[in-house]
Each structure stands twice: as structure tokens, then as C-alpha cells.
Amino acid sequence: SDSDSDSDSDSNQCADDNTAGRVLFEGAERYITAIAVNNNVTKVVCGRFTDCYNRAYEVVPLTIIFIVMGLVALFAFPVMLTQDVGPAIFYFTLAAVPMWLNMISSRSPEMMLRLFRFDFLFMSGNMIMFTMCLAWELGWDQRSMAVLVAILPTCWTLITADACNSDFEFNGRKINFAVSTVLITVIILLNELGLYHTARDPELIVQLNSGKWCMSPCNLTAANDTPWKTTSVYNLRSIGDMRGVYVLVYCVHVLIKSSRRPNECGSFDYSARRRWVSTVSEAESSNSSIQRPLNLASEAAPERADRSAEQGQEDAAVVERNRMDLNARSRRLVNSLEDDDMVILYAPVREFALTEGPAATFLCRIMEVCCVTDAQKKAAAVNLWMDDNRNLEEIAWLPLYILSFASMCNVIPHVFTYLITINLFDVARVLFRYNFEAMRLSTENTFLFWIPLVSATAAMAVAGISFGEGGDHGAQLFCFVTYVSFIVLISFADCDLSRKRVTEGPSHVVNFGALALFSMWAMFFSLGAFPTARNVVFTVRVGYRDVTMDL
Predict the structure, then answer these.
(1) Is-contact 354 23, C-beta < 8 A?
(2) How many CB atoms lie within 10 A of CB 447?
């Protein structure tokens, strides 16, 4: 079991508390999926000629040849962009096409369908935006075509790496993502420094209320902006390079993960489900079968033959509940295998158990770091007091938010903006009772934690600068409280391991309410509905060019 190292000691400390127990994080997918190695894109495209295709690779080391050609072409590409080489860059970059075609040929169609989730679509959108903005800068000439036929498909092979049926490629992921990290970094740096030959610096000007837009220079300006009629300027180079930074973060994330856990997928994760276990003995019984081989049931029986009949039935129930087996389609596939056939197994891994109780809360850990004596009892007392006084705050949370929002629009006196501060009590109450170890594990997720956190931080900073130009400190405080609420109530939502929350599941009211409130705030802010918000425009010198940023 991948339980936290001090879970046993914490369990003994908290066993007498009615809130103590263990929470098991189990894979939501209960079956192992088997994929035939020879069931890949090559078989779909070539059909009965697949054997001829495979024999060609056995006779000639085409994979190595294609990789060398592709790497030379890709790393020469950004250097050639800084020079006037004409159409030659397009034909030279075509050498990378066989490399990404060879990589895609090893993908499993079934696993590629399973990859169509939020993180896959998010990264695909960023890659398309990154390459499209770069192509727009280059003027849609031969260099732009080189971006679309070489850079974009190569980037796309990165996010489908988990679906490859090739041991050579899967085991070499670290090299692949390390090279991609360097390449994308070079492309972004040269672009931001303005070193690409004859590259434009296009700006998109949008009038949000009317929907009018144009590329600079044009007659749309922000000179006559009024509330609900604002004009925004977007620098396509900055937008594209920011999408490239997201791709870069993804490459670094998979590089680190594949180095630490070489047998695990880089981005294809099953969702987890939580289960509350009230007693230490039941938790230990579950943990004994939390890592499950395929023949778990048959192996568990001899170990428990000396127990009583009642204990044996309980153990059998635990094992059956935690049993991991092939799904029906995979079982048929395995049963039909020939002697030389091979399959790849995809199974949930890294299931673990966390101790829940007063000693495991965020407040208790902070007190221990601050060397507070008897931290566990004091943290439990503080959490109990805040829970006893939470009813009024829970009822007043939404009205206070609405009053503060209305005061920012000057519908009511502006002093009401500061009422949002009262909501920090409820945010602190929720934060203090969170499980500290669960919060630490949440920070390991790039897509569901770090990218939203960085985006929210940038949004708060921009809003704070905008309201600061108008001298509205109440609105700045509103943005800060909203930012903290987002982190605590949304980003760390899975860290509430109380019995009620684990048993009943997450509160969708909070999620939908946050979506509605944040969307309304973003719309009002973008359309200039807040009178004290200022459209701040400043210029930064980056390399050989001036970058204009419209906050």
C-alpha cells in the first residue's frame, strides 16, 4: 500500500475520537484493460499489408533513421527562421514528417479514444493556438506551412504517448520529452526576443459589446470606451507563446513523472473514489488487498485459512470488493491469444489510505510547525468552535458576496464592498479542517491544481492592478477574497475527508455556484461594468521589440 508513512501512528492517536478513521482512495475504474500490441494505427491503415510493413522495419533500422532525420530538421527549424532561407526551410522541415508518422503508427486506436478527456483536449487546444499564432506571425508563407506539417503533429504525438504500443518509444519517453522541452523553449525564446526574420507582431483588437474585431492597424480604438463598451487589444505573439508555455509545463510534468515512475502513464490517470473506514482493523484489512494482482482471490485464501468462519467471510467480502480483474472484452482478448501474441495491461495504480482525525488537519500541522504545545487538542477545539458558529456565516455567505458585488458596480454605497471580508471566516473554517496529507497530494496534479492556480493568480494580479489604478482598495480586497475562496473551496475540494463529505460525495452547489459567480465577475470586468476599474496599458521592452500589454 502507498499509505502515508505515519498513518498507523496517527490512527492510534485518533482512534478514540468519533471523527477519526481512515479514508481509502481507490481507482474509480474497477477493471484492467488489455490492449493487443498489434492492434495499432498501422494495422488499421495497412490492413493485410501490415506484415510487409513490419518486415521492412526488421530489415532496415527505419525507426532510428527517421528519428535522426526528424531531430535534425526540428532543431534546425528555429535557427532557419532567424535567416532568410526562402522556400528551402519548408522542404528541409519535411524531413520531420516520417518521424511523427512513424510514432503515430504505433498508437492504439482504442486507447486514443480513452484519452479524449479534459487534459487531452486542453493540451490539444494549446498546441493548436501555439502553432497558429506562430504561423500568423510568419505571414502564412512557406515557414508557416513548415510549422503546420512538422511542429504541430510532433507536439500532438507527445500527448498521445500513453497510447503507444511500442516498448521502444514508451521506455524512451524521458528522452523524448527532454528533447521536446529544449526545442519548445528555444522556439519561445527566439520568438519573444523578436529574432525571427521578417516576423510580424500582430495585434487583435476586439470591441466586446458589439463583437467587432480587426487586426492592427484599424479604426477600433479604446479612446471612447465607456462602461459596457470596451475595446481590448490582444498581442498574438504573447498569446501564442503563453500557450507554448502550457505545452512546456506539460512536457516537464511528464518528464518528471516518467523519471520517478517509469512504468506509469504520463497523463492518463483514472479518477479516484473515496471510501470511509471507521475502524483501524477494517482499514488494515482493506489495505492488505489494496494492491491487487490478477489472481488476488486465490492467493488470499491460504493466508486466511486459520481464521474463524465469520472472519473468513468478512475477509472474503473485503477481497471481493477490492478485486481487480479484466473487463469482459479484455478477458475475451486474453483467452484468444496465440503463443506469440502480446498484450499491454492498463490498470489503476497508487491507491492509498489517509488517516483522518484532529491530528491530520491542516490547522494541527501548522500549529506543530509553529511549535505550539498540545497542538492536537488546541486545533480540535478551534475547529469545533468554528463548526459550532458556522450556521450564520453559511447563510450570509452568498448575500454578502452579492452586496459586495453590487457596491463595486455603484448600485449601492461603495462601503458595502468591504463586507466580503466576513466570508474569510467560513473559508478559514473549511481550510483548517482539511486533511494536510491530502492537500500535499493534490499539489502533485498539474492540470487540476497548478494550471488553474497560476491562471487564477494572474487574473487576481491583473484585476488588482486595474482596480488599483482607480484607487479602489475595496475592490482589490474583493478580488483577493474571491481568489482565496477559489483555491480553498475548488482547488482543494477533495481534501475534505470528513465522514459526511466522503459518504455523501462532493457538494455540486459549491461548484456550480462558483462557476456562476466567477463567470459573472469576468463578464462585468471585461465589459467595463465596474466604474473604478481602469484599462491599464503598458509597454515592455523584450529583446529587440516592444510588447504592449492590455490588462
Answers:
(1) yes
(2) 19
| Neighbour-count burial of 391, counting CB atoms closer than 10 A to its CB (0-12 exposed, 13-18 middle, 19+ buried) | exposed
Print burial letters for 223-246: b (CB count within 10 Å at least 16), e (below 16): eebeeeebbbbebbbbbbbbbbbb
Report the C-alpha gap between 169 and 510 in whole angstroms. 43
Cell of 341: 501474441
- As given in the structure block, the three cell numbers for residue 100 are 511523427
Confidence bin at 278 (pLDDT 50/70/90):
low
The DSSP code for 386 is H
Looking at 11-15, 262-266, 343-347, 436-440, which range is the least confident one? Answer: 11-15
* pTM of structure: 0.75
What confidence tens digit (pLDDT) does each residue in 223-269 have? 566 666 777 777 888 889 989 998 898 888 888 888 888 888 877 77
CA 313 to chain centre: 41
Q: What is the DSSP string of 123-157?
A: HHHHHHHHHHHHHHHTTSSHHHHHIIIIIHHHHHH
C-beta separation of 37 from 333 below 8 A: no
